[in-house]
Write a structure and sequence with these properties.
By secondary structure, the protein is α+β, with helices and mostly antiparallel strands. The chain has one domain. Helix content is 18%, strand content 23%. A three-stranded antiparallel beta sheet has the order 2-1-5, with no helix packed on it. The protein has a two-stranded antiparallel sheet with strand order 3-4. About 4% of the residues have low confidence. InterPro entries: DUF8199, HYC_CC_PP. It holds the Pfam family DUF8199.
Length: 119
Amino acid sequence: MFSTLSLTIDKHFCGDVLVDVAIFSESEKCGMDISKMEATDMVKKSCCKNEIDVIEGLSDLTFNSFEDFDVIKQQVLFAYSYSYINLFEGLPNLVIPHSNYLPPTLVKDIHLLDEVYLI
């Protein structure tokens, strides 16, 4: 996805000093660009300059299928995907043999009748 991304980097220099850098937009000016003199219509050259760097992304994408790989790469890809899928396999359900067992109902508390106390 990032290989198809195109960027425009705009830099504004005032003299030799970098004032602003902007990506995807225009950089801010320092206010000293070009000043016109009204009386003589003479244009004074400014000390500012703009640099625009354009980074072009790829326009042609190639799509490879599974059959385009050689046999060894196909086997490695298959083994890796099989082991990765089985890595997150859930644990089997535990069988509790006495889950339906109901204890007998107590009529009297035998520990109190025999006066047996656990210390």
